[in-house]
């Protein structure tokens, strides 16, 4: 089974930032209002955020979720100007800059968010990890920063998916499988983690698992450009299973 599911790259942005930005807009920005692992210190931080800054950040998150990255930046800038320690707004700014493929500006915003939050705001870790993993291909640094984010938010789908991708990219398939499976468990309705899991199982020469992964993916009924590719790969895996079964039967007959 030599086929490969091609889905990794800048197209990761919708997965990573739909979860950290669009969800915020739908719920009047709960993640902007609270960090992933609340503590007394972070609660004090939240109480310090002026309403004007919070409103601007929510507006920016809504514009970013509506695919207006350029328009969202001015709102995040307003929020930061009012409250310079607003690490959540810096993370959102990083997301917007990423969407515009301004990698240096995006990385700088994520790093600032990490600095201001004392590395306690997982979306900033995952945003920077995304750049290191998919843009600059610094897999070692990406792994460190993503693992730091998972210490704060161990069940986060984005962090588990990203770490699974990094481990897959560096040939550590068994480890990668663990994190890809956690990503699927964390958000069963997302298709991309299931595709990553299928890709890992292709690397492990496990056609039965590939069929199971892609059955789960296709059952979601997503309007996804990967659907045809997934069906073709599933068919190849099914053919491989049938061939192996026939060969086993033939061996049994000759014994």
Please give a structural write-up.
The protein is mainly α and 255 residues long. The protein contains 14 helices and no strands. The two termini are 28 Å apart.
Task: Describe the SSE topology.
Layout: H1 13-26, H2 30-33, H3 40-48, H4 51-65, H5 69-82, H6 87-99, H7 103-116, H8 122-134, H9 139-152, H10 157-169, H11 173-186, H12 192-203, H13 207-219, H14 227-254
Helix pairs in contact: 1-4, 1-6, 1-8, 4-5, 4-6, 5-6, 6-7, 6-8, 7-8, 8-9, 8-10, 9-10, 10-11, 11-12, 12-13, 13-14
CATH second-level architecture of the domain at 1-154: Alpha Horseshoe
Number of helices: 14
Q: Report the oligomer.
A: single chain
Q: Would you tell me the overall average pLDDT? A: 84
User: Are there runs of 5+ residues with pLDDT below 50, and where?
Assistant: 18-41
In whole angstroms, how far apart are the ends?
Answer: 28 Å
- Rg, nearest Å: 21 Å
What string, H for helix and E for strand, traces the elements in order?
A: HHHHHHHHHHHHHH
Label the overall shape.
elongated
Helix content: over 70%
Query: What is the level 1 CATH name of the domain at 1-154?
Result: Mainly Alpha
Q: Compute the number of strand runs.
A: 0
Secondary structural class: mainly alpha
User: What is the CATH topology assignment of the domain at 1-154?
Assistant: Serine Threonine Protein Phosphatase 5, Tetratricopeptide repeat
Percentage of residues in DSSP E strands: under 5%
Q: Can you say what the CATH homologous superfamily of the domain at 1-154 is?
A: Tetratricopeptide repeat domain
